[in-house]
Amino acid sequence: MTRPNQTEKEPIELKKISDNVWEIPKSGEMKVPTRIFASEKLLEKMKQDRSLGQAKNVACLPGIYKYACVMPDGHEGYGFPIGGVAALDVKTGGISPGGIGYDINCGVRLLQTNLTKEQMYPKIKDLLDALFKSVPAGLGGSNITVTTEVLDGLLNNGAKWAVENGYGNQDDLDHCESNGCMEQADASRVSDKAKNRGRKQLATLGSGNHFLEIQYVDEIYDVETAKAFGITEKDQVVLMIHCGSRGLGHQVCSDYLREMERTFPEIIAKIPDKELIYAPAGHKLCDDYLKAMSAAANFAWCNRHIIGHQTRLAFKKVFPDVELKTVYDVAHNICKVEEHKIDGEMKKVYLHRKGATRAFPPGHPELAEAYRSVGQPIILPGSMGTASYILVGTEEGMEATFGSTAHGAGRVMSRHEALRKFKGEQVKKDLEAQKISLKSASWKGVAEEAPGVYKDIDEVARVSDETGIGRKVVRLRPIGVIKG
Amino acid sequence: MKPYKFLPHTADVRIEAYGKSLEEAFINSAYATTDVVTDHSKVAAVVEKEFTAKGENQESLLYDFLEQFLILIDADGFLLHEIKSLEISGNKLSVKCVGDSYSEKYSVHTHVKAITYQEMSIVEEDGKFVIKFIVDI
User: Fold this and answer.
1) Band of the pLDDT at A1, cuts 50, 70, 90?
2) Contacts of B73 in chain A (CB under 8 A)
3) Is residue A169 in a domain?
């Protein structure tokens, strides 16, 4: 009754281009080759699932330029691999919801503080308690419920809406990708189903790999750039927020996947994987999806912005003199209209980044003023208990990966296996032995997100640095974690 | 016959559900999906819900049917306990089910973000229906 999944698993021909860069040459239906940015160790992991076959499928999309790219933390996803980057022409290409993912604008926000880890350790339990109360995790509903009219305003205006309504400040907006608002957003393109899923979830963390983490600066690789990012010394405490657009974004993706499936049966018949469905450029559905996806992205920016605000209030309860400033907020599941130099010519493209972070170089006109001279901060979250990194965008990355790099550690072990191998209580004890405190809505969730289930973040950061697609600036280590 | 089982998948959850009829296999798929969130057998039977779904084929019907439970969780805080009746006719179905509103007495493992088409299949063999699918969490 159904056709088998036609995504190739193995073997796939790989050509070494340079250290940590591999190519799958053009063959069959591929319009361009595939470039993989990985060490041999990371590549081995990718060969164990369908990542590479999915990257080949992406290379078959119409209007695709140069290469379909896979970032160092790539793994199997739906349609696109996670860690997939593709530039599709705005006239001859299109947009594929599978190139963004269900969690539209899942991303990371980093705030710096004027505290040190020595000040933090004695108070960490109090702070986690205060944060746990102010930022709902798991199935817990939002403290802020909004009417449809208010929600529409929020979807159209993104984090600007939050500032206008008393959450956070202008400085937060100035330090956020796209200033926390995608201009194309149109709430009227978002279904009532999606709005109803998101209505009670504003400023909530959700579950899975989403978290709130208190960290300290463990190592500074580039003092000048770190200083520009507000990171001035070792042991400085920072706060990382990882979450997305919640049920609203998931439903937008699902609604448009289904609508595209109904509208373009001839495309479905041609593509190797249903989840790779796309709306051709120029079709109303392509424009509508871009508007709805942008609205969902705005919802996510509002979430992280308001969570940042709530976090500030929680910190103040424990440290009355604390100051928290947003370093940056980046999306890692998004599609944007961008201009890229291709064969010496500037081309307008639908730039898909799925489990990939934008990494713009110094001087890029889309960068926040504060970072225009140094380049864009890239926030690379690790897994629970491991390091995280701040990287910076480069010219090489602009050329090699359309200004993109990794988004985190990437899973290597199934949740199923994680549950067999780890117990939540034991993971907590192990973390405590490393002076990392943990609070979670679910023990099972803790086991599923145990540090051992992810790729080695240090390896991912190293490959990003060595291939030049995102240079290392700062390494962070956790002190306390709230897991969604 | 075990009604459903969970199989390994790197990032998400792979489900295989069975039934002597298509309806039974659909119902077991819904229970398995709910179990990813919370043990459906422990949810009280206090709130009733009814809905209909329509697909273009069996797979999309299954997709829309299962997605409805995700929408009920997020929009209404509704956790499924039991499907009282499910009628499938062609590419349409109607459901009556019972469950409870989420409260802290229910231990929740994780959210399900979405049902996916990845490796989805609905197969009938020797009078037994097997449904395979992956949910994104």
Assistant:
1) very low
2) 139
3) yes
Q: Which residues of B touch A103 (CB under 8 A)?
A: 113
> Quick one: closest CA in A to B119, which residue?
A5
Q: Scanning every residue of chain B, which has its alpha carbon at the shortest distance from the alpha carbon of A245?
A: B113
CB A250 to CB B70 under 8 A?
yes
List chain B domain ranges.
12-136
Residues spanned by the domain of A475: 15-412+454-483
Whole-angstrom CA distances from A120 to A214, A215, A232, A413 are 9, 10, 17, 32
Half-sphere exposure for A180 (CA within 13 Å, toward CB)? 30
B1 touches chain A (CB under 8 A): no
List, as ranges, residues 19-58 from B with C-beta within 8 Å of A.
37, 56, 58
Structural domains counted in chain A: 1
Q: What is the distance in angstroms between the Cα of A338 and the nearest Cα belonging to chain B?
A: 28
| ipTM of predicted assembly, 2 dp | 0.92
Side-chain-facing half-sphere of A118: CA atoms under 13 Å: 1
List CB contacts (< 8 A) between B113 and chain A: 102-103, 208, 250
Chains A, B: CB pairs < 8 Å:
124
Backbone angles phi, psi at B94, to 5 degrees: -135, 145
pLDDT at A31 > cutoff 50: yes
A136 in B contact zone (CB under 8 Å): no
Domain membership flag for residue A417: no
Pair A222, A472: CB distance under 8 Å: yes
Residues in chain B: 137
Say which CATH topology domain B12-136 has: Archease, Possible Chaperone; Chain: A; domain 1 (3.55.10)
pLDDT tens-digit map of B36-61: 999 999 999 999 999 999 999 999 99
Q: What is the per-residue pLDDT across A40-69, written as a single tens digit (0 to 9) for each?
A: 999 998 998 899 999 999 999 999 999 999
The strand pair at B92-101 and B121-125 is best described as unpaired
Higher pLDDT, A6 or A356: A356
Catalytically active residues of A are 407
Q: Is A411 on the interface with B (CB under 8 A)?
A: yes
Residue B126: exposure state from Cβ atoms within 10 A (0-12, 13-18, ≥19):
exposed
pLDDT in tens, A367-419: 988 899 999 999 999 988 899 999 999 999 999 999 999 999 877 787 778 88
